[in-house]
Amino acid sequence: MGLLLDVGVAIIVILLIIVFAIIGLYNGFIRKRNRVQDAWAQIDVQLKRRYDLIPNLINTVKGYAAYEKSVLTQVTALRSSLVTGSVQDKAAANNQISQALKSIFAVAENYPDLKASANFQQLQQQLTDTEDKIAFVRTSYNDYVLDYNNAIQQFPGNIFAGTFHFARQDFFQAPEDEKEPIKVDFSDLNAPGPSPKADAGAPGNPPARKPKGKKAQPQQ
Predict the structure, then answer these.
(1) What confidence tens digit (pLDDT) does each residue in 140-185 have?
(2) Domain-located, residue 199
(3) How many CB atoms lie within 10 A of CB 101?
(4) Which residues 6+ apart lie within 8 Å of 140 measured at CB?
(5) How many domains does the chain have?
(6) Is residue 216 part of a domain?
(7) Does the model's pTM come out above 0.70?
(8) Domain that holds residue 98
């Protein structure tokens, strides 16, 4: 009788250990998945902020150059992927927007007055800050995804992950040439800019801007 009691107690203890182990695995999966979702939400916010800045940037460029409308049309078409797409859809849309931004910045290089525009500088800086934030949160997101995917794919988690419907998460990836944030060079903006007429003249070093409110003195 005592032996049966001891066996029964041992079985109950083993069952309790198994139950608590399963609960621990389940709660661990939940914590890791929540970290992934929270990190993705931060990426999502920055992607949408970046998109909202681009039309303002293009409108500013249009004031100085007859810029192709196709770029704005392309960026607008990517909005649905940024708002409702999957992780991979949003990563692809983000990469295409990066290419569009490089095209816009290339156009701006031909217009010194545009580069010196306070509005253009501000938009560039905001986009650069957003790029930095995307790069930072993307790293955190991918780290959390790796931790979560390892947990549900390694033993013994893989035994229960499918039962609890914990699916593998996608990484937020970028092509090799898109892994660095867009570089914006402000080093030449502190120097005196060219006069508005300088763009139409011959290449070379244009004369410095004349101070506002003062007439230029004739040369002797």
Answers:
(1) 999 999 999 999 999 888 988 888 889 999 998 865 544 444 443 3
(2) no
(3) 22
(4) 39, 42
(5) 1
(6) no
(7) no
(8) 2-182
